Amino acid sequence: MTKKKRHPAWSYFIAFFVLMSFVITSSMLLFLNYFAEASGVVFTRENLFAAALATFGNAVFLALICTGVDVLRRRIMVDRPVRAVVEAARRLMRGDFSARISPAASKGASDGFDEIINCFNTMASELSGVETLRSDFIANVSHELKTPLSVIQNYGRMLAAPSVTEEERLEYAGAISEQSRRLADLITNILKLNRLENQRIYPDAERYDLGEQLASCLLGFEDVWEGKGIEIAADIDDGVLVESDAELLSLVWNNLFSNAFKFTEPGGRVSVSLKAEGEDAVVKVADTGIGIPAEVGEHIFEKFYQGDTSHRTQGNGLGLALVKRVADIVGGEVSVESEVGRGSTFTVKIRIAADEKALGDT
Predict the structure, then answer these.
(1) Which of 12, 27, 192, 306 could bond to 317 as cystine, CB 3.0-4.6 Å?
(2) What is the pLDDT along the chain (362 residues), one digit of tens a residue?
(3) CA–CA–CA angle 265, 271, 275 (5° rounding)
(4) What's the Cα-to-Cα distance from 147 to each of 118, 140, 142, 312, 356, rounded to whole Å?
(5) Which long-range contacts (CB under 8 A, 24 or more apart) does 132-141 make?
């Protein structure tokens, strides 16, 4: 297949301006003809030829000047920013996510290059963030998977020893079971978070009593708080109705309760409250646990972020990321207030059902 020959760009300019010169010259001759008929002036053939030649020459001269100015304009205002965009795009294709384009030099230009450059820089910044998250995600997943797998492998090897006693066998089997559960929880949370972030889960709104759901989720941790001797304080208003996805919100409450009991020392206190405040149902889950440092609180809702970098406390850093993502999906808000050594309070706001709000206003 033969490639179609492309004409140089300047050939189109020459053809265009020669055509325009011809049109202008013809228009000038028509004008002189009408002028002669109206005024009675007689133009000789030599006069008309000289006028046409002068008009055509002037048109060509002006065309050349305009062409030169336009070529210079294109080199400065078009070719230069296009080359910058192309070069930055090539760097981005090679994996250099630090590629950025300086704003166009022409201020107030209406050619749209500044908008293109801003969009490109925003895209490069987002891609850089995604790449960083991807690298961190792989590193954290590898660590979180390796830890329970190593424990399972070690205890499995010890179980195979012929000298293991019945008591040791039960202990090792329990450890393997616990690490298997932790591994299953990690994989489940990864899948849930992936589905949430890719919008493969859509809210299935239904009207229900939020207080009943909170009480039900809290009772699911009864064995935990009784085992640790934790005092429970519940202040849940009756009849607070919301219209939201109950299954998604149960992820929020279960994760918040799990963290509260996990980080509260034996004999501590966990409190749950539900109040209707204006258009929102406000849920607060507070504990008297270890608290969260300020620098940790800024990242607490990020994937795999753990304030305890030693991993002494079991967890995979995905629970609060799930909480934040669910809150965003259902149109709610989540925040945290904490003080090291005194505990943390997580606040979730969910819009009250429309009918319930109307009843409250009356």
Answers:
(1) 306
(2) 445 555 565 666 677 667 776 777 777 777 767 777 777 666 677 776 777 777 777 777 777 777 778 778 777 777 777 888 888 888 888 878 788 887 765 554 445 777 888 888 888 877 776 666 566 556 656 666 776 788 888 888 888 888 888 888 888 888 888 888 777 776 776 676 666 655 555 567 889 999 999 999 898 888 889 999 999 999 999 989 999 888 888 888 988 998 899 889 999 999 999 999 989 999 999 999 888 776 665 557 665 444 444 344 444 456 677 788 888 888 889 988 888 888 899 999 999 987 655 444 54
(3) 160
(4) 43, 11, 9, 12, 48
(5) 133/303, 136/303, 136/304, 137/303, 137/304, 140/303, 140/304, 140/317, 141/190, 141/304
Location of structure tokens 């640790």: 228
Task: Give the right CATH number for 206-361 from 3.30.565.10, 3.40.30.10, 1.20.1250.20, 3.30.1330.60.
Answer: 3.30.565.10
CATH number of 124-197: 1.10.287.130
pTM for this one?
A: 0.51
CB 325 within 8 A of CB 199: no
286, β-bridge pairs:
271, 345
Write down how long the chain is. Answer: 362
Domain spans of the chain? 9-96, 124-197, 206-361
